[in-house]
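Exercise 7b. Backbone tokens:
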């Protein structure tokens, strides 16, 4: 245990809290198909700053995506997903540059604010029809890469494009899963280039990938078609509440 704490550079209490949050976020990802990174960022940000959470979240997203990839590959709109992933490569360096350039408190406020705005917009079912075009596709990809570099929540931006494209629910869910997997695979380049993916980030990611994968498995078992319409609103409301609490705590500290 001491070796794990030293490797992850966390106290025992911090380790237990982050592990529990990773499992909870995995459960949410398992039954809703999204919000893993947003859930961890909105809660664990009181322990670790965004620049340290982002590399850890890379490993969590990759581990969750591997578990969910089978259906994602079979049902996703692959040409659309490829376009989003390629465009995101432009946005990632911009977001990371901003994250490493501003003070820690400012980066926390920015990350939590992005989560609140995106979650509230999706809860309100805001539909941006102008995104359903080639320009909208690549613009969405760049924006997704940018917010991923700031808060690792690019999947929530991609959801706006999929909604505007009027895709069936199964295709939307599968496309998000595939985007998160391919996006994780390509974003490693930017993380390494900016020196964000360091030993601590990789260590934490590998360690907390275990409770995350357990959570994803549990979440998948909890998924039922009868309750499917309620999963997304529940997750978004929970996410908004957690992010707002994080913002309040950040401003008061």
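Sequence design result:
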């Amino acid at each position: 245990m001491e070796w794990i704490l030293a490797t992850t550079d966390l106290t025992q209490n911090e380790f237990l809290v982050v592990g529990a949050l990773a499992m909870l976020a995995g459960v949410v990802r398992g039954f809703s198909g999204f919000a893993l990174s947003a859930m961890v960022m909105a809660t664990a940000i009181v322990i670790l700053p965004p620049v340290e959470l982002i590399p850890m979240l890379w490993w969590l997203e990759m581990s969750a995506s591997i578990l969910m990839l089978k259906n994602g590959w079979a049902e996703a709109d692959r040409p659309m997903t490829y376009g989003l992933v390629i465009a995101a490569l432009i946005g990632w360096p911009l977001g990371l540059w901003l994250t490493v350039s501003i003070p820690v408190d400012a980066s926390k406020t920015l990350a939590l604010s992005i989560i609140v705005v995106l979650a509230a917009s999706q809860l309100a079912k805001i539909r941006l029809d102008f995104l359903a075009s080639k320009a909208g596709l690549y613009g969405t990809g760049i924006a997704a890469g940018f917010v991923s570099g700031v808060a690792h929540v690019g999947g929530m931006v991609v959801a706006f494009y999929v909604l505007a494209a009027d895709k069936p629910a199964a295709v939307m869910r599968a496309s998000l899963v595939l985007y998160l997997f391919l996006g994780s695979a390509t974003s490693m380049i930017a993380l390494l280039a900016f020196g964000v993916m360091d030993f601590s980030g990789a260590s934490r990611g590998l360690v907390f990938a275990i409770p995350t994968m357990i959570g994803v498995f549990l979440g998948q078992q909890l998924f039922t078609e009868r309750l499917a319409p309620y999963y997304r609103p529940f997750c978004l409301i929970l996410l908004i509440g957690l992010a707002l609490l994080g913002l309040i705590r950040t401003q008061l500290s």
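Instructor comment: The radius of gyration is 17 Å. DSSP finds eleven helices and no strands in the chain.
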